[in-house]
Amino acid sequence: MNERPSDLQVKGVTASYGRSRVLHDVSFDVNEGELLAVLGPSGCGKTTLLRVIAGLHRAEAGLVSLGSRVVADGNGRHIAPERRHVGLVPQEGALFPHLSVAGNIAYGLGNSRMRRMDLKARASRREQVTALLDLVGLPGTGKARPAQLSGGQQQRVALARALAPSPALVLLDEPFSALDAGLRASLRADVRTLLYERKMTSILVTHDQDEALGMADRVAVLLDGRIAQIGTPEDVYHNPVSLEVGRFVGDSVVLDADPSAAPSGWVRTPIGFIPVLGTPSGRGKVLIRPEQVVFSSAAEPTGLTVTNVRFTGPSTLVTAATEDRKIWVRAHCAGDRQFTHGEEVSVDVTSSVPFFAD
Ligand SMILES: Nc1ncnc2c1ncn2[C@@H]1O[C@H](COP(=O)(O)OP(=O)(O)OP(=O)(O)O)[C@@H](O)[C@H]1O
């Protein structure tokens, strides 16, 4: 377990490259032992944010503190990266190709040379490397070169190297993005378990919604260098603060909605009445997730026919649309009921959806 106080505070951080501003007044906390995912599209500033926290990029304004230590502030304070006790796991290709796996991990333990160490220190270092290799599920691979390992194994070594000095904070910069789907899923699960068991305070940067929602205790949605929302995965998924966040965080359909023509707690939409969260007033839009939608065979004309049926494994994703295709809605259909192209369907929305005023 990590002994260093490790809650992170980021307050009002603004950062640029030359005259181009990338981060705008970014603030958030990460509690000790928590995994925060920073989720955002490519180019929104995720890597820059990690670089500011690690001390590799100087912010123009704002404060970064780890435990009780201020490691950067707007008044010129800037603790060097190697003195921040922060471990960084980059995207890929981060291992030294000329060093063995053990050599790469030992590098994370500090750069004092083995040759200059006494026997006891050498033995202790070997033990630590062996323990770290066991920890990341790669026992016995110490003598291999990175090129002899698979992409997933290399990322495990990079994680072991980052964990070697018992950092106060681990930063993971899209560490699974170069891996194929199966490997990505198993490595995500292993890394999550490992960080949880070691009570590591961590930030995972990703553009992958499933990864952020599935791995993190909380998710910070970063759009155009600004934190748009921070909350639990359930919160950002079901209660997005804006249409933009809602659309980015997961698959959705957005429809025009009018509360004035519906009973309280409902809105009228082109596909019928739908229950909404809160008490909307004025016209707006609703955001519906496919798993909130149920299709059934239309008992009377609805004007909605099935236009696409896609088997995804656990369920089938079915799309139905009006003839002009201007109004459409999608549902995850589980079970045996098969829908066919051109079939007319009626639509039920089974739980309350968020409403956004125009
Ligand atoms: N060294 C640099 N010099 C100038 N501009 C940069 C530099 N690094 C990044 N940028 C720009 O800053 C913006 C944010 O980049 P950053 O790498 O932080 O985004 P990101 O969200 O991590 O993107 P990705 O998911 O594609 O890695 C982008 O517009 C990028 O082109």
From TrEMBL:
<dbReference type="InterPro" id="IPR003593">
    <property type="entry name" value="AAA+_ATPase"/>
</dbReference>
<dbReference type="InterPro" id="IPR003439">
    <property type="entry name" value="ABC_transporter-like_ATP-bd"/>
</dbReference>
<protein>
    <recommendedName>
        <fullName>ABC-type quaternary amine transporter</fullName>
        <ecNumber>7.6.2.9</ecNumber>
    </recommendedName>
</protein>
<keyword id="KW-0410">Iron transport</keyword>
<dbReference type="InterPro" id="IPR013611">
    <property type="entry name" value="Transp-assoc_OB_typ2"/>
</dbReference>
<feature type="domain" description="ABC transporter">
    <location>
        <begin position="8"/>
        <end position="249"/>
    </location>
</feature>
<dbReference type="InterPro" id="IPR050093">
    <property type="entry name" value="ABC_SmlMolc_Importer"/>
</dbReference>
<dbReference type="GO" id="GO:0016887">
    <property type="term" value="F:ATP hydrolysis activity"/>
</dbReference>
<keyword id="KW-0813">Transport</keyword>
<keyword id="KW-0067">ATP-binding</keyword>
<dbReference type="InterPro" id="IPR017871">
    <property type="entry name" value="ABC_transporter-like_CS"/>
</dbReference>
<keyword id="KW-1003">Cell membrane</keyword>
<dbReference type="GO" id="GO:0015408">
    <property type="term" value="F:ABC-type ferric iron transporter activity"/>
</dbReference>
<keyword id="KW-0472">Membrane</keyword>
<dbReference type="GO" id="GO:0043190">
    <property type="term" value="C:ATP-binding cassette (ABC) transporter complex"/>
</dbReference>
<keyword id="KW-0408">Iron</keyword>
<keyword id="KW-0547">Nucleotide-binding</keyword>
<dbReference type="InterPro" id="IPR008995">
    <property type="entry name" value="Mo/tungstate-bd_C_term_dom"/>
</dbReference>
<dbReference type="Pfam" id="PF00005">
    <property type="entry name" value="ABC_tran"/>
</dbReference>
<dbReference type="InterPro" id="IPR027417">
    <property type="entry name" value="P-loop_NTPase"/>
</dbReference>
<dbReference type="Pfam" id="PF08402">
    <property type="entry name" value="TOBE_2"/>
</dbReference>
<keyword id="KW-0406">Ion transport</keyword>
<dbReference type="InterPro" id="IPR015853">
    <property type="entry name" value="ABC_transpr_FbpC"/>
</dbReference>
<dbReference type="GO" id="GO:0005524">
    <property type="term" value="F:ATP binding"/>
</dbReference>
<dbReference type="GO" id="GO:0015418">
    <property type="term" value="F:ABC-type quaternary ammonium compound transporting activity"/>
</dbReference>
